[in-house]
Design brief:
heterodimer, A: alpha/beta, Nucleotidyltransferase, domain 5, 3 domains, six-stranded mixed sheet, five-stranded mixed sheet, globular, B: alpha/beta, Rossmann fold, 5 strands, binds cobalamin
Chain lengths: 475, 151
């Protein structure tokens, strides 16, 4: 048996998945606590021993090993641009699309106060942008001088007006910082360009960040290439939506990941206007888009979730009185390992998840704004129209363990009353019950057919609870 | 590098034919045209001008509400740090037959540098722009990185 080893160093768990390449199936998987505080290889060793024990009788050879990581805080970034809705927003989307966690987004010229704040945020990488090609170059040059003059230990990616790049290189050299200059995140007005900056970020992640986070040995012993886990999930979403050379993809889709600290939403779709009379405004958002909501989560962020969605909404969703909601949310934030035991607790967890889904999808989706003019009402669309989405895939403990995950995921759909958000209108719901999306994403580049087949077999339609993988028709 | 122009049709105005013709004429004349198209708000014009480092803004209004749509644009430019940008406006700026000198005065008072009556040929504005950009260099120090070498 030819096996591929897929390893995900998560913030809490280290997961090892073994895939049988020829029979195209998951052989087994295991997870143990991530041990980044001591030695990351310890936890990995335990997880590996577990799968080895399960495979004791099999004859196998490991032909490849692929690794992703969100251990030790993941990839934490700060982005800066010129106009808030233009290059600063493009830079933010690029960071998120690279699998980063946004610590801060700055626009216009950075002040000394901004630099102090960036220093306090202590990101892993700083992305500088500003100006279209041939456009404004003052801002990015000012910002590069200001921030790299003050903060020398953080690597920089500069992806702004190409006319500024000579000046920027000179500034970075003079200040002796580690940097990469690359193509503009917004070469032409409103056109976002993700790939070059994303590649630069991924390279710095491997060259610098991995070591700094105590994963040096992983790189040495397991795999030269390590990507941030969210980037793996994005690759999975992209492959699933687009398909392979031999198989047609699932089409426009959404992946929603409800975690303890954040709720992540990934969309793989065009998002062009479908509402009659809607006119596109501003930045054209990318086909593959990721957003992360740091205030919406099941445990650490339960309290902030309550603040964001409000007691009234949680009361409507759960039927619990305000006092219970207050108490339970504060308890959950303080006890991140807390499990929901009673039926009431489980049901409350699911209400929190429903609220997280609702708000996270609102923030991810585009918006229609009505403008009243002398000629009647006009409709301006900003962001992506998700109404073409017809598959929504949920992942994260609360969904995986739920008896009725579709009921949670339903909250991503459009409600008539609040129609300015361009959410999906109707959709099939799937659940990643075997936590395989990041593993499939790791396979996506080198083994696309295998990755696609595994996702087809192991993602299950929500609501059902079979043990056998549910076969999907392959087209 | 050529001078950068942001052009578009302001407000709820969707007359697109003249906008396409102007885009073509100014591009042919050697300008880098950033066309934000019809139905553009004052903020759209300003944001585009900031990112692209534009030297001039060409505002069109065809449907008769130009005065209302253009009011305050100059103030917002000043507020946004692009007070030196040249502001041109043209099209069918007002409703009906009004005294042109009076219309022009009102738009000058709003802060526009050039105001064009209906039916103005693009060449007129191209000549004016070439002259005004040179003047801008002399009077305001403008850019000196070879931007205007084409003129
Ligand atoms: C075609 C047309 C339409 C089409 C537009 C289709 C489209 N996608 O463009 C439709 C049917 C949609 C339409 C709708 C309306 N229209 Co109409 N339309 C016209 C029409 C017949 C031709 C416009 C045109 O394309 N001209 C050809 C182009 C090349 O010329 P231009 O647009 O004037 O642009 C040139 C110059 O003005 C100049 N220029 C323009 N901007 C600038 C800027 C600068 C800086 C410079 C230097 C030069 C410059 O250069 C351009 C190129 O040479 C005109 C009448 C006319 N003959 O002009 C009415 C006209 C513009 N419309 C008019 C009106 C009232 C309307 C409506 C309000 C009608 C209604 N009640 O619904 C709506 C408004 C809709 C909206 N939201 O904008 C009026 C405007 C009245 C006014 N300003 O006083 C006009 C003048 C008709 C009239 N005589 O009453 N219209």
């Amino acid at each position: 048996m030819e096996c591929i080893l897929l390893i995900d160093f998560g913030s809490t768990y280290t997961k090892v998945t073994v895939v049988d390449r020829n029979n195209q199936r998951i052989v087994c998987s295991s997870k143990t606590r991530t041990t980044v505080e001591t030695d990351i290889m310890l936890g990995y060793g335990k997880a590996l021993a577990k799968v080895q024990a399960q495979m004791a009788d099999a004859e196998y050879e490991v032909i490849d090993c692929l690794v992703c990581s969100s251990a030790a805080g993941g990839l934490r970034m700060v982005a800066s641009g010129l106009v808030k809705q233009l290059t600063a927003e493009a830079a933010r989307l690029v960071c998120l699309g690279s699998g980063a966690k946004m610590m801060g987004v700055f626009s216009q010229k950075l002040t000394s106060g901004d630099v102090t704040r960036i220093e306090a945020l202590n990101p892993d990488i700083i992305l500088l942008s500003g100006g279209t090609d041939g456009g404004n170059n003052e801002c990015i040059i000012h910002n590069a001088k200001k921030v790299s003059g003050a903060i020398g230990h953080i690597p920089y990616v500069a992806a702004g007006n190409k006319n500024a790049s000579d000046d920027l290189e000179a500034i970075f050299e003079e200040n002796g910082v580690y940097y990469k200059t690359t193509d503009n995140v917004m070469p032409e007005l409103n056109q976002i360009q993700i790939e070059p900056a994303r590649d630069a970020i991924r390279k710095i992640f491997m060259e610098k960040i991995i070591e700094a986070k105590g994963l040096g040995e992983v790189k040495e012993k397991l795999s030269k290439e390590i990507i941030p886990t969210p980037m793996a999930v994005l690759r999975a979403a992209e492959l699933l939506a687009g398909g392979t050379d031999r198989h047609k993809g699932w089409g426009p889709l959404l992946v929603i990941d409800i975690g303890g600290a954040t709720t992540d939403v990934h969309s793989a779709c065009d998002g062009y206007p479908t509402r009659p009379g809607a006119v596109m405004k501003g930045l054209v958002e990318p086909f593959l888009k990721r957003t992360v909501e740091g205030d919406l989560g099941m445990r650490v962020s339960a309290e902030s979730l309550k603040e964001s969605v409000g007691l009234m909404t949680l009361n409507e969703l759960s039927g619990e009185p305000y006092e219970y909601i207050e108490e339970r949310c504060s308890m959950l934030s303080g006890n991140i390992d807390m499990l929901a035991d009673t039926e009431k607790e489980v049901s409350f967890d699911e209400s929190l998840a429903a609220a997280a889904v609702k708000v996270a999808v609102d923030r991810h989706a585009g918006k229609i704004e009505s403008v009243y003019t002398p000629l009647g009402t006009l409709f301006y669309q900003t962001g992506k129209d998700l109404s073409s989405v017809d598959t929504i895939i949920g992942t994260g403990g609360v969904l995986v363990h739920s008896k009725n995950p579709a009921r949670i995921l339903e909250h991503s759909l459009l409600e008539e009353a609040k129609s300015e958000w361009l959410r999906p209108t109707k959709s099939k719901f799937m659940v990643d019950g075997s936590y395989m999306l990041s593993a499939a994403g790791l396979l996506a580049e080198r083994y696309p057919e295998l990755s696609f087949k595994l996702m087809n077999d192991y993602l299950k339609e929500a609501g059902r609870n079979e043990d056998e993988p549910q076969e999907r028709k392959m087209v | 590098m050529n001078a950068v122009l942001v052009m578009g049709v302001i407000g709820a105005d969707c007359h697109s034919v003249g906008n396409k013709i102007l885009d073509h004429a100014f591009s042919e004349a050697g300008f880098k045209v950033v066309n934000i198209g019809v139905l553009s708000s004052q903020e759209d014009f300003i944001n585009a001008a900031i990112e692209t480092g534009a030297d001039a803004m060409l505002v069109s209004s065809l449907y008769g509400h130009g005065e209302m749509d253009c009011r305050g644009l100059k103030d917002k430019c000043v507020e946004s740090g692009i007070e030196d940008i040249l502001l041109y406006v043209g099209g069918n700026l007002v409703v009906g037959k009004q005294d042109w000198e009076d219309v022009k005065r009102r738009f000058f008072e709003m802060g526009f540098d050039r105001v064009y009556p209906p039916g103005t040929h693009p060449d007129t504005a191209i000549d004016d722009l070439t002259r005004d950009l040179r003047l801008n260099i002399v009077l305001k120090g403008g850019r000196t990185d070879g931007v205007y070498s084409a003129y």
